[in-house]
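Sequence in, structure out. Go.
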Amino acid sequence: MAEAASDSEGQRSGVPPVIRSLRVAGDEFQLTRVLAAVLSEDGRACRSFLQLVLSAAASDESIGRHARSVRLPPDIACNAEYVLGRRGRGRVRRQSADLGRADLFFSGGGMRLVCELKLDAPYGKDQLQRYLESGHYVIAIVRSPGPVRSTVAESSRWLGEVSWGSIRDGLSRLPVRPAVEFEWQSLLRVMDTDGDFDPRPPTRTTERDLQLAEVATSEAVQRLGSRRMSADLRKLIRGFVITVSKRRRGAAALVSGGTNGDVFFTVTVSESSGPTPKVEIRWHPMPISPPFAGQRAMHALLTDDGFRAHKVRSGRYFSEAVTLRDAPGEGSIEEKIAEWLLDRMAAVVHVGLLNWDAENLKLGV
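Output:
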């Protein structure tokens, strides 16, 4: 009944259920592909999109003159995920052949322009600086413009940041082909509902995210504690406390224990309303610094088994992520996620890290 009601509501609002179900809120890669598909097949829409973005950038008091200086040729091509290379010849060019992938790359009549699209994700390390090294104009569409590095701001090729809100009305007026007009307008309405054009990212946590995080994590911990292991390790695992909370995107289950309530695992579940929920597990080593040789060897084994090592200000952690379509096993979503979490937790036990923590907790380290 709930699904039927949702479909009826979508039809009344003029949004096809297919568009609503396929759009993943906050997904920049998906948005990039849709924009490229719409703009690459229609020269008028492509040029109008650039005029819209550049007009918004021209209103910036500090660097608006850069956007006003760009002259658009009559014919412009648009490509998605375009690989950028350093401008130059010979050895200089070969030193850094790949400067990253531009979300949208516009070219024509000697004009080259990179357009970066941002919804939820931050810029990558030196991303804007690398794009500028390609020798092309660079502009970004973001939720809310903010300060950038001085080396970026001072470049004559940096055209600035434009907010989605400032171009939202203009997007609905783009002269797209009649064959895609209805789908384009429907997508914009879905993005309005999802808050993709808002100045700040909305909290994208559903009750389903919270339920899956709690149920699957509890099941995995319970099954892990029933396996054969040392008494100290079994005591540690059976004493684990699971606390579920909302995150900006998804729900997190913290698995803590020991005398100090240390967090050992963090399980994050997101996008469970779609066909392929995303799940991430993090293993947090006890903060022993510096790690001794045996611990470093166990960390290496963990990365060999699929985990990625991350260094943060408070220490380090190891993570691994999966989407439901990749998860092993059969049965319900809860069972598939629990099976994968159990396998990953068991990997930490297998290399000896959780056993090492249990022993050190016993010794009061």
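Check: DSSP finds 15 helices and eleven strands in the chain. The longest strand covers residues 100-108.
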